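Fold Annotation — chain and its backbone
Encoding — discrete vocabulary of local shapes
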Amino acid sequence: MKAEQLAVPGVRALTPYLPGKPISELERELGIRNIVKLASNENPLGPSPKALEAVRRVSSEIHLYPDGSGFELKAALSGKLNIRPEQITLGNGSNDVLELVARAFLSPQLKAIYSEHAFAVYPIVTQAIGAQAAVAPAHDGSRGPRYGHDLQAMAQRVDESTRVVFIANPNNPTGTYLTKSELSGFLGDLPRHVIAVVDEAYFEYVEAPDYPNSMEWLSDFSNVIVTRTFSKAYGLAGLRVGYAVSSPAIADLLNRVRQPFNVNSVALEAAKAALDDDNHLTRTANLNRDGLRQLSEAFTKRELNFIPSVGNFLTVDVGRSAAAVYDALLRQGVIVRPIANYGLPNHLRVTVGTEEENRTFLDALDRVLEP
């Protein structure tokens, strides 16, 4: 019997998550140097100097197991976010926390709801558990931002079998967001038997005045889980550390299925130090604001349609098969992200880099798109 036949049905039908191409892989394939990677929404400034110092300090202790409870990082998050430590679940990146939610609350008899064009991990964790999936169509532009979550369409799909609703705010890869009034109204109307996961991976980048901090609602909505990460604005993607904040009762359930040492000791220390470096976070936000403006103006000048974004990336319609443009950009030494797997075959997602990296990308794009 083939190995695939031994797997459970949900796993047999899964398509693995495809990350952005690593720089080292492109170097091996094409022998290119001085590559610009704008594919994975990483912080172009890198990690905080305080985080790097913490990594150096703790590196001599990596022969010891990490604190399985993450006591010190939870304490730091508690003080920073004005929450209780018992509300926190730590993860090996926020993707890990999303999987914990699926393992704790979904089954083949239950359903998860998420939006069209939403983060690829939602269908993966749902299908791996064998749960049912209901995909709500995104806005077409008539009632809300095109490609954004349509909360009315999502609400219409809630029934007795629904146990989890995944909401990305802002959404990856579209960069669209839900306002405070929109999201609070949706959460208020959601039946209490449905867990609402509000994924705020890009929270630290958003400057829109009507963008909500969903953690402020945890005392009002006991069925809400808010997830965040240190991989984006904090620049710790390589260390894999994220977290969820919820009611203590939900956190207790998530911790029952969490692996004992799912966050390593280096990541724990680096994340704690990064939380204490507000200057680095401010520099990151300022660079991103300038970069979004630089790319937006450049796309407008080139008459390329793009989706307005509040994250650290822009998704642009190149007017043709994005896969071919992506391949051509690779040969120019620039890595971006084709997103046909999100239902956007003519779009590329471009991470905001430094001013020079953005300019390198735009110059390469001009060469690729020239008649």
Q: What stands out?
A: The chain has two domains: 3-46+279-369, 50-276. Residues 278-301 form the longest helix (24 residues). The longest strand covers residues 344-351. The mean pLDDT is 96.
